[in-house]
Amino acid sequence: EPEVTQTPSHQVTQMGQEVILRCVPISNHLYFYWYRQILGQKVEFLVSFYNNEISEKSEIFDDQFSVERPDGSNFTLKIRSTKLEDSAMYFCASSIAPAGELFFGEGSRLTVL
Amino acid sequence: QKEVEQNSGPLSVPEGAIASLNCTYSDRGSQSFFWYRQYSGKSPELIMFIYSNGDKEDGRFTAQLNKASQYVSLLIRDSQPSDSATYLCAVNAGGSYIPTFGRGTSLIVHP
Which residues, numbered 14 to 73 in chain B, qualify as contacts with chain A under a Cβ-Cβ cut-off of 8 Å? Predict the structure, then answer.
């Protein structure tokens, strides 16, 4: 069964460092998303991506964040200068159609020290 | 501001009982409604989606949507200990295909 894969599963970094989280969406999906979930809190939308550009982004997705689809398979989230409050589980998701079911990856846990 | 509200629980039910999970949403123009299950430390996985008023059944799960009252519910029949998880309600507001998630309701099914 096709699945969304994410790497790394866990990353520990120092405050101020750059982090890149990687995702391989399901191959025939066209819509890609990043969500995050701070421990004990709800799943929060960060950004959506379609046709090689950002389609929507939340207030959380400020200038410290960027997304890229560098090739035909990978979808990355970059945090330029991490802060303590960026510590969270980051989920990549993809869907075959807008407003359809999201398929989530297993997540990348980011710990900022 | 699009709000999706859920009682955080925990909701505790005995094995074999019906678990009823509720969700309300603020945007009257919302079009698509989803229930996801999230086990501790894992990612959300879709259980059901519903677009039209009324009931939709899939095995032991029934989703109920009432757009006039702006609520959506999930019933789990014959609850099993393996159903113990957090259940997330997600709603696509009108004009957006981005699901907004509620905080989730923790369900505990005890033997």
Answer: 31-32, 34, 38, 42-46, 49
Query: pLDDT above 90 covers what percent of chain A?
Result: 87
CB within 8 Å of A94: residues ≥ 6 apart: A4, A25, A26, A29, A31, A32, A33, A75, A102, A103
Over residues B91-107, the pLDDT tens digits come to 998 778 899 999 999 99
Partner-chain contact B98 A33, CB within 8 Å: yes
Q: Closest-CA residue in chain A for B48?
A: A101
Q: What are phi and psi of B83, to 5 degrees?
A: -80, -10
Structure tokens at B51: 């677009």
Separation in Å, CA of A106 to nearest CA in chain B: 5
